[in-house]
Amino acid sequence: MDQEVVELREYAKSLKEDPTASIDEVAMLDADFFQQTSRSLVRKLDITLMPIIWLLYMFNYLDRNNISQAKLNHFERDLGLKGNQFNTAVSILNVGYMIMQLPSNMILTQVRPSLYIPFWVCVWSCISASTAAARNNTHLVVIRFLLGIAEAPFFPGVFYLLSCWYTRKELALRTAVLYSGLILATAFSGLIAAGVFAGLDGAHRLAGWRWLFLIEGAASFCSGVVAIFILPDFPERQTGSASWLLTPEERMVAVERMRRDRVSVEEGNKSVWYGLKLAIIDYRTWVFVVMLIANHTAYGFNYFYPSIVKGFGLGSTTVTLILTSPPYLLAALCCFAFAYSSDRRGERGFHMSVPMTTAAVGFIISAATLSVPVRYFASFLYICGCFSANAMVFSWASATLSQTPEKRAAATAIINLLSQLGNIWSPYFFRPQDATRYLMAMLLMMAFALLSVMMCLIMKWSLRRANKKILAEYEGRDEVPVLFML
């Protein structure tokens, strides 16, 4: 090994061992060594952190969304559901989700994510499995409400954790990888349900939908236990998997990378309440809130897609469940393509507005025709469009609202919390009397998709103005400013 690199490595170790040394001194290290260590750090995160949170997110959505498959297996009949009671069961989860989300993300900045996140994974797994014991609508509503509370800490928590380890230019692709867990969970949930219903329906006098909740809840619980040993904590801490996975140099570089990546650094009070204040007074937080509410409303079809496909009359329940998978598999590929392009080009706004425009076209086609093949094709458009855009929102918001870690945590939680309003009201778009075409729902989701496009363009305009001001402030100075990503 080159002697200079050896000396730099020893210097980095001495910095870590010296409690009086500033973490910013790592910036004095050789640039090549910094980049080499940074690449090593990212590679280790990609093969440990990303797979486990991808798996957890897949189970997060499986446990939340399996009610839509259960609907095709006498679920409503067995529980005596009538009218809009199924819609309420879908919607009530998001009420619990909203209640818990912001407090959870504020707590997360003060605790160990490697313990906090797996704890909630195990809790929601048990609650989801308990759906198998439900006997009436009241049982179902209570279980779904508690499931929302237990699932709330996960997504904003793991996204905040990702934003503490990955830079803005790295985050979109990793967010798409994470989001593909949701998409593939939706894709494979139909296949899993088809297998369970075909092989276990009536086994030991239990309906197939009860087996579905039990099996997926047990698998989710096991993944939560495994996560305890693989998740890292924050870069500044020597706990979690970082204690055995990363070298001292890599931990220092992790901290320095994030310091360099911020548009600006707020000094002073670093409390979670100060971070909450910064997030609330920033108007861009609220533009992102409206954007994501519109996005979530636009993909309100998700819980009802098996019923939509069932209405096409293409075959048995097994055939219907199998046919729900292809659009989501294509959506996963589209997510990766848009995220890769977004990271390469350093652009977010058009990479969100184009997919949402495509989704709006899909909704228009679904509302305008009775042709089954055309409507099935249109579902590819709105599924790919909605999911590709949603994979981009949080990476854009995190990069824009990252002046302090506390602000980023609070802003992420606020955006994700209030976006659940879209998930609360969108199930009621799908009125039982409108089955199977759901014309009103398609028109409303089209309108919200276009609202999302408008918010993207407003945000892009706002950030372009902000970048011009930053460049004007740095004019004539040697220092290169960090700009907002458009």
Structural write-up:
Keywords: Membrane, Transmembrane, Transmembrane helix, Transport. It is found in: Membrane. This is Major facilitator superfamily (MFS) profile domain-containing protein. One of its GO terms (cellular component) is membrane. It is a multi-pass membrane protein. The protein has one domain: MFS general substrate transporter like domains (Growth Hormone, Chain: A), CATH 1.20.1250.20. Helices cover 75% and strands 0% of the residues. By secondary structure, it is mainly α. It has 20 helices and no strands. It starts with a helix and ends in a 13-residue tail after the last helix. The protein is globular, with a radius of gyration of 23 Å.
Question: Which features does this protein show?
Answer:
single chain; 486 residues; mainly alpha; Growth Hormone, Chain: A; 0% strand; globular
Radius of gyration: 23 Å
CATH topology: Growth Hormone, Chain: A
Quaternary state, please? single chain
Describe the sheet with the most strands. none
Distance between the termini: 41 Å
Total domain count: 1
At CATH's second level, what is the architecture?
Answer: Up-down Bundle
Order of helices and strands: HHHHHHHHHHHHHHHHHHHH
Helix content: over 70%
Q: What's the total number of strands?
A: 0
Give the class from helix and strand content and strand pairing.
mainly alpha
Q: What is the CATH superfamily? A: MFS general substrate transporter like domains
Strand content: under 5%
CATH class: Mainly Alpha
